[in-house]
Structure formats: C-alpha cells, structure tokens
Amino acid sequence: MKFTIKLSQAAAEVVDSLTNRELLDQVCCPTYTRVGPDRTETFGAMFFHPTEREELEQQIERFQSRCKIPPFIVSDLECGAGNMVLGATKFPSMMSISQTNSVELAYEVGAIAAKEAGELGYNWTFSPVADLAYDPDSPVVGIRSAGKDPEHTIKMVSAYMRGLQDHGMMATIKHFPGDGFGTYDQHLTTPVNPLSREEWRAGPGKVFKDLIDDGAMAIMPGHISLPAFDEIDEATGTYPPATISRKLLVDLLRGELGFDGLIVTDAVEMGGLVGYINYFDACALALENGCDILLFTRMDDIFYREMEQRLETGMLSIDTLKKRALRIVSLKFQLGLMDGTHRVVEASNPIRNLEAAKEVVAKSITVVRDRKQLIPYPITRQTRVLHVVIMNHADRFAELYDKIKDELGKHTDQLTQWVDPGPDNLYRAMCEQAYDLVICSIGSKLSYGLNVVRLHDEVARNMMAGWSKLGTPIIFVSHFHSYVHKEYETSIDTIVNTYGDIDCTIEYLIEGIFGKRGLNRSLYAHD
Predict the structure, then answer these.
(1) Residue 351 falls inside a structural domain
(2) Could you tell me the pTM of the whole model?
(3) Is 354 a residue whose pLDDT tops 80?
(4) 451 in a structural domain
(5) How many domains does the chain have?
(6) Cα–Cα distance for residue pair 135/241, rounded to 1 Å
(7) Catalytic annotation present for 266
(8) Which residue range forms the structural domain that includes residue 422?
(9) Is 47 buried (19+), middle (13-18) or exposed (0-12) by CB count in 10 A?
(10) Which of 135, 185, 210, 266 is an active site residue?
(11) pLDDT tens profile 166-196
(12) What would the mean pLDDT of 295-299 be, rounded to a whole number?
C-alpha cells in the first residue's frame, strides 16, 4: 500500500511558530561531524557517521536532548547496519543478499538492520539502493544494487525495504530516476539516463513504481538527468539533474508514479548538482521544485545568509519553505516522534544475526563461469598453489590477502602469494609450470569519485602476456566488482564472485573451491 504523509493541524501550529531560520533548519539534514557537538539548533534530521558505540550513543542523546522538535536520526543501512554502525552485524552487499534469491532472508536482513540501528536511536535510513546494475562499468552502482533485472530487483529490494519499515526504520529508495546506465559518477558530474520513455517505464520506472506501491516512505533523487521526460536548459544546452527538476519530481514522481512520501536530495555538495548550478541556487530550487529536505548542507553563517537572500528575491518562497517544513513535522507526528509513541524497537538477537550473515554468504558466493570444470578442485597438501592479487589500490586490502593465505594454508603446504607481480613474472611461472593451481584475486572496489570501477592503470597490465592460456589451472575470484568476467570474456575461463567480504567469506570461498561446501551457480542478480 502506498505511503502518504498526513498533514496535521498540530504540525501546522508548530510550523507557524518557527522563524525563517528555524524553518531552514527543519528542512536540512547536515552531518554531525560537520555541525559539531555545540550547536543548539533543531535540525530536521541529522546524519551520524560511524564511530565507537559509546561515543555514538552520547552524540545522539546529546543532539536529541537539545531539539525542540524531535529529529530524524539518520544512517545509510544499504546492506545491514554493520558498515555504518560499529559492532553491528556485517553483511557483504545488497547484490550478495539479492544473489541468495531468498525473499525471506532479504526481509530478515532489513529487520536486523532496523533493530541494530534502532537500538541506538536511528529511525531513518538512506537505503535501499533501487538502481539497476545495467552498465557493468558503473562507478557507483555495482554490488550496491540488487541486480539488472527489474522484476528480481523489485522482489529483493522490496523485501529488504519492508524488513526495515516493519521494524520502525523509515526506508529511502534511491537514486530516482535511476543510476547505473553509464560510466559517469554523480559525485563528480551530472550523468544522463539515456532511456526512452518506454524503456524507462519498463526498467527503472517500473522498479520505483512498484516499490512506491509497496509502501516506500522516502525517495532520494540522484543528480541524474532524464531527457526523455524533461526539458533542456537553454543556458547550458543540457538537461537538469532530477534534484532540481520540477518535470521529474512533481510531474513524473509525484504525478505519474503517485508518490506522496518524503523526498530527500542526495548530498547537495556533489558535483552532479553544484557543478551544474550555484550551490545556494541548487538548495533553493531543490526545495522549490519538489524536494522536502536537503542532505549534507553546510549549516554555517554563509548558508543562512545566502538562503535568506533567495527568500528575499523569491527564488525560494516562504510559502514553499513552510510547506516543506509542514510535511516534515507532520510526518514526525504521524510516526509518533512528537509525542514519544514511536515504535519501541525490539531487541535484536546477536546469535541469529550472525547466522543470517553466514547464510547470506553461503548462498551467494557464485561460480559465474567454469568452462574447464575446475571447481571443485582436488587439492592435496602437496599441491603447489599461487595466490595472485591483481587489484587496484592493493595496499588497502592486506587483511583480505592475509585471510586468503590463512585459509589456503589449511589445505596445502605449498603456498606462494604475489601482489601485483607484473605480466612477465606470471608468464615465466606459467611457462615453467611452477605451480599446479593459481587462484587470482582480481578487480576494483567501488569508491565514490574514483570514476573507474574496472581494472585500470599499471595494475591492469598484469592481464597481458597470455599467462592465463599456458596450461596451468587458474581460478579467478572477484571480491567486489561483479562484472570482471564481462571485460575478460575469453581470457578468464573460471571465475567466482563473492559480492563483498565479511568474516566468513574467505573461509566459505576456499571451502567451496575445494569441494568442502557447495557454491551457487545461478546468476540471479546479474547475467
């Protein structure tokens, strides 16, 4: 059932009592690290980054105690709470959850995230990602997505979303109208979603529509343009990002798709928005053209002064500002934040949470390709194994390599590990048949602003010299980039995807490669 914000008289009375500056505070969600502990304003929401649990509890409690209007306490629970809440259960990725093809498990992971974060006071998450992993080289989607197929994505994302919302956590589907259709990064520039109206309605449009119909409470527009539904900006000759597009937010999202929940911008300082238009104009136009709340605003004297100027010129009307604040405060009444009746979060079960994480890993590690039927590989203590690392920023993943080395050491006494050895060394070793088996960790990890997710620069040269075709059995493993096999269609004959790494991932991976446990061979999340 669609979610609707119910405007209330009680909320209207609260909003009428606010000054212009207090109204601005109510429609903004800054970060606690940037605002600091000494501010006394009642911000509409506050985002808390990971920090030690005791300190985090103190920060949230201190902030809440000073707010005249109870705030939203926000995090980014894209695949459980463990990546954002220290000490919470870690799950590998949304694509890993999706690859299990278990609606029940996806729902449970959402519920676990809601419980673990809710125990600390969180009540809103900017997740789940609803983007389709359409372009293998997208620098920001990848394993954050549930996959490429709209129907499978709807099934898995909806389950995760309902798990969150059924347990007191407001969910946010993102990034409307759909990222993942190109190689540009909205952190840096304004990507264009190139789909026609028919293609969009059958793809990302269907995903957003069905998730709205399933009760999504909030939506985050990306700094992404959609020319099929918009008008060109004559001044620049380009199409505006959805964040400031009335055509996309009001006509398409509110109108055609019928969404009546909360609209929150993506971070307003991202290049896809403020590289397109002046920072303060962007904030004003986002509110004026359909957004309810601004994310990661810099709440300093400059911001207030510039926004007040835009109120004076009419770029942002006081009527709009009050309407946005009214929606936010009404939602807080509706959820029970204003009178303290917001649902008490039931305690999570740490033992079951860990079991669920292990179940996700066990069901999601996938043999994507195995042309020579190498898996399961018949290893012995005398098998000469070489573990090769061909990954960008290899220095960041030393802990991963150590785990692989430890797990391989449980199966063989003849183990060597090379990091970025170069094609010449690999060529000679394969020609000399120096090893019986090569396991090669390959790929890049998503990192905003990186703008290249595939192997690149000098590290990519390791894939030269033809060493993968010289007779030695080679099993490639992609830990983070699930589409390596598409680029290396012929040079990689066997590859396994793990879709992320948590404590049990490498243990289950190595056991699977050597036939001690089964591995998934169905590509639910992608082709």
Answers:
(1) no
(2) 0.96
(3) yes
(4) yes
(5) 2
(6) 19
(7) yes
(8) 365-513
(9) buried
(10) 266
(11) 999 999 999 999 999 999 999 999 999 999 9
(12) 97
